């Protein structure tokens, strides 16, 4: 059984050469899973470079090899030992829930693992437990190897999937940034065009602003649909090469498309028509009267008259458009709840 005092755990001095970590900050402590006694890296090189040798700790006597030493991860060596034991036992008892006919048998399997770890960690019937562990490994060698091979394949597929997802993400960001730069350049040109038209046109400033706002709204809608189509194409290409989806591919590809109850996010032409919403400055400043027979939201009306919001380009139309878009996409619609109510 591993017995370590608090002084030994907290001490930053090599018990062999008496080098203090305070005076030698670059000093590293190593431990060997045979006995978990802490020794500095220099002492390990000096004592074990010529081959196996007894542990220099008094009354230990375990024969240690240099290639078995490793850097200590946890400050508490008891935890360090338990982690190593769990890793060793887990490599042998490597079945998962899918390998059992029911949950009860799987839980029994897990309890058996915990009992083995507890005995080895606390020095209870160590020789007998290790002999049983070795016998189990011998009896189930083929199953263990097959399971490891399946898990290795899953890990490899997962790594490929993560790499593909990262490439997809970067490609989407690159396209989005390019479109944002194009939109920024377009906005500058529109501002210059508005100034030129204000100087030369017979139309009022409000009429010119309204006309340009209408054009910008149409263009933004087109750009949004264009970005959605590009992203959709990229995702389709990704799904065709997705390593994790190969084993689960079905004839019905509709299952790979995100579900929205009313398909509102895939309609090019909107299924609704907005009521009249105040657009001009005069209408906005008198929005309570100008919006009669249309939408009514006192809180949003207050924001609409805020000069900071107006100056930033925010318009009340955006609020009602977004609300209707979300409704037609089915956002916030709980299908299970709807079913229970209808029944």
TrEMBL record:
<feature type="coiled-coil region">
    <location>
        <begin position="126"/>
        <end position="185"/>
    </location>
</feature>
<keyword id="KW-0862">Zinc</keyword>
<dbReference type="GO" id="GO:0008270">
    <property type="term" value="F:zinc ion binding"/>
</dbReference>
<protein>
    <recommendedName>
        <fullName>RNA polymerase II transcription factor B subunit 3</fullName>
    </recommendedName>
</protein>
<dbReference type="InterPro" id="IPR017907">
    <property type="entry name" value="Znf_RING_CS"/>
</dbReference>
<dbReference type="InterPro" id="IPR001841">
    <property type="entry name" value="Znf_RING"/>
</dbReference>
<keyword id="KW-0479">Metal-binding</keyword>
<feature type="region of interest" description="Disordered">
    <location>
        <begin position="205"/>
        <end position="256"/>
    </location>
</feature>
<dbReference type="InterPro" id="IPR004575">
    <property type="entry name" value="MAT1/Tfb3"/>
</dbReference>
<dbReference type="Pfam" id="PF17121">
    <property type="entry name" value="zf-C3HC4_5"/>
</dbReference>
<dbReference type="GO" id="GO:0006357">
    <property type="term" value="P:regulation of transcription by RNA polymerase II"/>
</dbReference>
<dbReference type="GO" id="GO:0070985">
    <property type="term" value="C:transcription factor TFIIK complex"/>
</dbReference>
<dbReference type="InterPro" id="IPR013083">
    <property type="entry name" value="Znf_RING/FYVE/PHD"/>
</dbReference>
<feature type="compositionally biased region" description="Low complexity">
    <location>
        <begin position="227"/>
        <end position="240"/>
    </location>
</feature>
<keyword id="KW-0863">Zinc-finger</keyword>
<dbReference type="GO" id="GO:0061575">
    <property type="term" value="F:cyclin-dependent protein serine/threonine kinase activator activity"/>
</dbReference>
<keyword id="KW-0175">Coiled coil</keyword>
<dbReference type="InterPro" id="IPR015877">
    <property type="entry name" value="MAT1_centre"/>
</dbReference>
<dbReference type="GO" id="GO:0006289">
    <property type="term" value="P:nucleotide-excision repair"/>
</dbReference>
<feature type="compositionally biased region" description="Polar residues">
    <location>
        <begin position="205"/>
        <end position="219"/>
    </location>
</feature>
<dbReference type="Pfam" id="PF06391">
    <property type="entry name" value="MAT1"/>
</dbReference>
<keyword id="KW-0539">Nucleus</keyword>
<feature type="domain" description="RING-type">
    <location>
        <begin position="14"/>
        <end position="59"/>
    </location>
</feature>
């Amino acid at each position: 059984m591993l017995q370590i005092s608090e002084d030994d755990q907290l001490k930053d001095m090599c018990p062999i050469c008496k080098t203090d970590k305070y005076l030698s900050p670059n000093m590293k402590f190593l431990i060997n899973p045979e006995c978990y006694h802490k020794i500095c890296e220099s002492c390990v090189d000096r004592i074990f470079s010529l081959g196996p040798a007894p542990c220099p700790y008094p009354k230990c006597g375990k024969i240690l090899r240099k290639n078995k030493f490793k850097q200590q991860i946890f400050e508490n060596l008891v935890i360090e030992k338990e982690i190593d034991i769990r890793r060793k036992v887990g490599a042998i008892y490597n079945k998962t829930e899918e390998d059992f006919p029911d949950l009860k048998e799987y839980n029994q399997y897990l309890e058996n693992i915990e009992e083995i770890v507890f005995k080895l960690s606390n020095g209870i019937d160590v020789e007998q437990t290790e002999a049983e562990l070795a016998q189990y490994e011998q009896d189930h060698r083929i199953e263990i190897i097959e399971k490891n091979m399946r898990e290795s394949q899953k890990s490899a597929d997962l790594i490929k999937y993560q790499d593909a997802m990262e490439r997809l993400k970067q490609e989407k960001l690159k396209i989005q940034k390019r479109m944002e730069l194009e939109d920024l350049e377009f906005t500058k040109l529109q501002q210059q065009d508005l100034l030129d038209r204000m100087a030369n046109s017979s139309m009022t400033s409000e009429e010119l602003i309204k006309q340009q706002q209408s054009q910008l709204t149409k263009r933004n809608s087109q750009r949004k649909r264009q970005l959605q189509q590009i992203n959709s194409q990229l995702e389709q290409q990704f799904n065709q090469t997705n390593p994790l989806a190969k084993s689960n591919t079905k004839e019905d590809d509709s299952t790979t498309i995100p579900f929205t109850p009313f398909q509102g996010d895939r309609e090019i032409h909107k299924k609704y028509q907005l009521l009249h919403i105040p657009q001009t400055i005069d209408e906005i400043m008198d929005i309570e009267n100008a919006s009669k027979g249309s939408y009514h939201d006192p809180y949003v009306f207050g924001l609409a008259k805020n000069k900071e919001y107006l100056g930033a380009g925010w318009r009340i139309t955006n609020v009602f458009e977004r609300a209707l878009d979300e409704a037609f996409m089915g956002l916030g619609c709980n299908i299970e709840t709807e079913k229970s109510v209808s029944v």
